[in-house]
């Protein structure tokens, strides 16, 4: 809508009604006048025709043409009359007179109107007075006879002229009225807009800050009231500004004082921050030193544990040593998490994912905590549901850490009963699964109010619990962060006095083929097992394992039903009995042994809630039965069943003897190894050829491309830092040349793997990353996985755990050979490092140290590798101020290694 001012609105207000009324009235009067003119013309034409009809009665009757012409000439004397036509009753024209003056115009326009009247003869009949049928009506209504017709044609020009004059006059009067109204509206609008314009000018002055505005009050009525109000407003604004300026002055003075106070506080805060940073740095140094001090004895424990494992041990000793090793290994992981709590809070903790067996991971956690649970008389029960895939791509060490925290807390806050660990499948897609793992105890429970305090750093329910149960309240906080990093969440369901269920979820990739799923074992086909376990949950856990293996299972919660089944004709090959070794269980066991002596076609396996080797040995010797400690491990159950059901089966013997080799075999695989470091190349080639692979060696990315063009490989193992063309460039070229259905797995090898590097490698098309030194078994398994499942790529990244000594995987002969190669390379590497350091070429020094550091992982030079690792990390983090000292340490270790090698040769 058009934005009009007051003047325009006044004009519209004045003109619209007046114009509307004028147009309506003009239209009405014009219409009425035009109708009157038409009516007058029609009356005149009818009257003229009627007059001629009456006058020409005698002439038509008598046939006197002269009288008719005289009448016609008299009628044609009028300008409007154009033609007069007289006909007899048969339609024969007696007279046709035209107005010669109007004839031309009539022919051109043909604007005429015709009026006609009949010529009637009046006949009066004379009747005798004695006529019988004479009536009064006959005397007043004479007989009429039509003699002919008179037609008069009148021109419409005169009528049209009169109409035009009428329209013109009406419109002229209307226009004059509108103009007069417009003039009056303009005059009235000026009277209103002039004072408003003055007010507008005054408002602009006030807007510019001039509040000393004076308005002349010349108007009357409401406009004068408006002017007075505006003047009062300007006066009020002037007073308000004055007061505001005074307040601003006072506020400015107060603000100045506040600013001085804030500046003083900022100075104090800055000093406090510097102190806090110094304290944090001191804490970091302390933690680093403590890390070194703690790792040293733990590494010693791990080292001597591995040495003990190489000696001749009984099965109990072997199990005990394995438990020690796992405990020390997990202690190292826990130490890493405690030292890296700041990384967790900053969101910088990353996961090292790989293929893992989820069932074995859970069993490992249960085995580690079994002694603590059994000391309190608590039984650990694992329910691994059959629809859960066993082989997953996730961080097994972090899952184990969460499990240790949750199960450890459950044991801590329980005094008896049992703890159930359930592993369930929540969601499943074509590529990913959501797994839910819960830990349910029968402990003291947690109130709703206290549940809100969980999962926060250093938070415990109350101080009394901290004294009673010990701990610092860090485990659940770490578990929460790890669960979120694993793509899930963590929570608790509990009521005070009614136990608690801690649960967490993980979201991870699964294998597309059926390799990870539980499948029946053909060697168990046709065998049946009877179970006696009063604990229904424990019995259900064992049933899951046995049914998944293809066995027929008969569970019993009461010994009477078991004995009846044994006495019946039902075939039972093995009886598995859970016992607590109390008097009641001992009686049941004696009865079972007695029945076995009478019916020797079944074996007995005892499940004992103890991992004490002495107790287990006593049970085996006392009852001459296989004895398996709780918590149950799937592999132990399967091994025990195999030893009883098929102890001499050639097929089983072959499977047992070759199973491991079959898993690790790469027979028939054609692999390309791209490595510029001769030591690394020789070691990787040795590892792969030992398991049957055919290996081709090249030294850089360009040679890898040339080999790829001419030869077909099953997989490519490629170093990332190489001369001529690095691993990223080579991988990008290979991916650009691949067909849609021809994907070759590429495994990257690097001595260091930062988060930023990881993304660059994956974007280049590398399927998996391994950090040197890589675990031999993991390398072989990864090659088989990627070759069998190429679509499961683009996010595989793993490295040897810090607690595992990768050197133990390298056979002694090849390690000696690699060390000899290293001795030959040291002088050249040292010279290159000295040159790069002297000119400050840190990039070149980083390339040299990276290549050198990667090769040291497979040689007998741990101290030199540690020093080279420190140098490499300094170069990556650009800590150039410490490079000189670190480089000196590397050179010192080089000299020691050379001197040691020289003495050995002497």
Radius of gyration: 58 Å
Total domain modules: 5
Find the structural class using helix and strand composition.
alpha/beta
The share of residues in extended strands comes to 15-25%
Please tell me what the overall shape is. Answer: elongated
The N- and C-terminal alpha carbons lie at a distance of 108 Å
Helix percentage: 55-70%
Residue-averaged pLDDT: 78
Q: So, the CATH homologous superfamily of the largest domain?
A: Histidine kinase-like ATPase, C-terminal domain
Please give the number of β-strands: 22
CATH class of the largest domain: Alpha Beta
Report low-confidence residues grouped into runs of 5 or more: 129-134, 466-472, 648-663, 790-810
Strand and helix layout:
Blueprint: H1 6-55, H2 57-62, H3 65-76, E1 81-88, E2 93-98, H4 103-109, E3 112-123, H5 136-140, E4 143-155, H6 157-207, H7 222-309, H8 315-339, H9 341-346, E5 354-357, H10 358-375, E6 379-384, E7 391-394, H11 396-412, E8 418-428, E9 432-440, H12 448-451, H13 463-469, H14 475-485, E10 490-494, E11 500-510, E12 528-532, H15 536-548, E13 552-556, H16 559-567, E14 574-579, H17 583-598, E15 603-608, H18 613-623, E16 626-629, H19 634-645, H20 650-664, E17 670-674, H21 678-690, E18 694-698, H22 701-710, E19 715-719, H23 727-737, E20 746-750, H24 755-763, E21 768-771, H25 776-788, E22 796-799, H26 812-839, H27 842-856, H28 862-876, H29 883-905
Parallel strand pairs: 6-8, 12-13, 12-14, 14-15, 15-16, 17-18, 17-19, 19-20, 20-21, 21-22
Antiparallel strand pairs: 1-2, 1-4, 3-4, 5-7, 7-11, 8-9, 9-11, 10-11
Helix pairs in contact: 1-6, 6-7, 7-8, 10-11, 11-14, 21-26, 22-23, 26-27, 26-29, 27-28, 28-29
């Amino acid at each position: 809508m058009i934005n009009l001012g007051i003047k325009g609105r006044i004009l519209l207000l004045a003109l619209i009604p007046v114009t509307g009324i004028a147009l309506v009235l003009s239209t009405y009067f014009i219409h009425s006048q035009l109708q009157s003119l038409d009516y007058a013309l029609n009356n005149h034409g009818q009257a003229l025709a009627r007059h001629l009809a009456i006058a020409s009665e005698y002439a038509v009757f008598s046939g006197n043409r002269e009288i008719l012409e005289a009448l016609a000439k008299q009628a044609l004397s009028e300008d409007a009359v154009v033609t007069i036509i007289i006909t007899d009753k048969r339609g024969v024209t007696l007279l046709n007179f035209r107005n010669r003056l109007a004839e031309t115009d009539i022919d051109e326009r043909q604007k005429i109107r015709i009026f006609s009247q009949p010529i009637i003869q009046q006949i009066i009949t004379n009747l005798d007075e004695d006529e019988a049928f004479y009536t009064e009506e006959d005397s007043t209504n004479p007989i009429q006879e039509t003699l002919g017709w008179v037609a008069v044609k009148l021109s419409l020009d005169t009528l049209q002229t009169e109409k035009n004059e009428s329209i013109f006059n009406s419109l002229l009067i209307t226009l004059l009225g509108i103009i007069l109204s417009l003039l009056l509206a303009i005059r009235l609008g000026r009277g209103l807009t002039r004072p408003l314009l003055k007010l507008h000018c005054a408002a602009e002055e006030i807007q510019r800050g001039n509040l000393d505005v004076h308005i002349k009050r010349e108007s009357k009525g409401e406009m004068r009231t408006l002017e007075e109000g505006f003047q009062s407003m300007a006066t009020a604004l002037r007073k308000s500004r004055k007061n505001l300026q005074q307040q601003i002055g006072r506020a400015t003075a107060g603000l100045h004082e506040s600013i001085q106070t804030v500046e003083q506080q900022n100075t104090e805060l800055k000093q406090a921050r510097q102190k806090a940073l110094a304290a944090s740095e001191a804490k970091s140094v302390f933690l680093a030193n403590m890390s070194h001090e703690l790792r040293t004895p733990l590494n010693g424990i791990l080292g001597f544990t591995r040495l003990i494992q190489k000696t001749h041990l009984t099965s109990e000793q072997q199990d005990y040593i394995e438990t020690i090793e796992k405990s020390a290994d997990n202690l190292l992981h826990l130490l890493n998490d405690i030292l890296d709590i700041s990384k967790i809070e900053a969101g910088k903790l990353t996961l090292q994912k790989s293929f893992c067996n989820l069932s074995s991971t859970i069993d490992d956690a249960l085995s580690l905590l079994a002694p603590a649970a059994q000391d309190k008389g608590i039984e650990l029960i694992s329910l691994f549901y059959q629809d859960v895939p066993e082989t997953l791509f996730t961080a097994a060490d972090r899952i184990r850490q969460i499990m240790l925290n949750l199960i450890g807390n459950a044991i801590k806050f329980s005094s008896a009963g049992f703890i159930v660990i359930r592993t369930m499948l929540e969601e499943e897609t074509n590529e990913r699964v959501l797994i839910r793992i819960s830990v349910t105890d029968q402990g003291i429970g947690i109130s709703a109010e206290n549940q809100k305090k969980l999962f926060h750093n250093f938070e415990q329910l109350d101080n009394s619990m901290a004294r009673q149960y010990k701990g610092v309240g860090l485990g659940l906080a770490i578990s929460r962060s790890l669960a979120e990093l694993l793509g899930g969440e963590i929570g608790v369901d509990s009521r005070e006095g009614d136990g608690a269920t801690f649960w967490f979820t993980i979201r991870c990739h699964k294998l597309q083929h059926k390799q990870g799923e539980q499948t029946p074992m053909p060697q168990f086909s046709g065998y049946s097992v009877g179970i006696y376990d009063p604990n229904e949950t424990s019995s259900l856990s064992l049933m899951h394992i046995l049914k998944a293996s293809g066995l027929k299972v008969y569970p019993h919660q009461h010994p009477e039903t078991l004995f009846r089944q044994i006495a019946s004709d039902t075939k039972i090959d093995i009886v598995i009995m859970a016992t607590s070794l109390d008097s009641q269980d001992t009686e049941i066991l004696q009865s079972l042994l007695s029945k076995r002596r009478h019916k020797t076609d079944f074996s007995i396996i005892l499940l004992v809630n103890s991992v004490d080797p002495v107790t287990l040995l006593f049970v085996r010797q006392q009852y001459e039965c296989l004895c398996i400690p709780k918590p149950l491990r799937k592999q132990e159950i399967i091994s025990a069943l195999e030893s009883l059901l098929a102890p001499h089966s050639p097929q089983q013997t072959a499977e047992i003897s070759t199973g491991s080799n079959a898993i690790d075999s790469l027979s028939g695989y054609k692999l390309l190894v791209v490595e510029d470091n001769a030591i690394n190349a020789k070691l990787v080639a040795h590892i792969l050829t030992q398991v049957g692979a055919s290996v081709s060696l090249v030294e850089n990315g360009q040679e890898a491309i040339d080999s790829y063009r001419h030869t077909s490989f099953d997989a490519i193992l490629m170093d990332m830092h190489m001369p001529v063309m690095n691993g990223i460039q080579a991988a990008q070229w290979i991916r650009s040349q691949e067909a849609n259905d021809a994907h070759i797995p590429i495994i990257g090898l690097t001595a260091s793997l930062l988060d930023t590097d990881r993304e660059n490698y994956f974007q280049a098309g590398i399927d998996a990353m391994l950090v040197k030194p890589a675990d031999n078994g993991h390398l072989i398994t990864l090659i088989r996985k990627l070759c069998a499942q190429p679509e499961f790529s683009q996010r595989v990244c793993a490295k040897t755990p810090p607690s595992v000594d990768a050197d133990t995987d390298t056979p002694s002969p090849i390690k000696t050979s690699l060390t000899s190669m290293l001795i030959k390379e040291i002088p050249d590497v040292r010279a290159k490092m000295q040159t790069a350091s002297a000119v400050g070429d840190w990039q070149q020094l980083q390339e040299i140290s990276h290549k050198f550091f990667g090769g040291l992982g497979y040689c007998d030079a741990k101290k030199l590798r540690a020093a080279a690792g420190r140098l490499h990390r300094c170069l990556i983090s650009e800590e150039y101020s410490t490079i000189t000292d670190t480089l000196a340490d590397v050179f010192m270790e080089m000299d020691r290694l050379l001197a040691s090698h020289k003495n050995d040769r002497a």
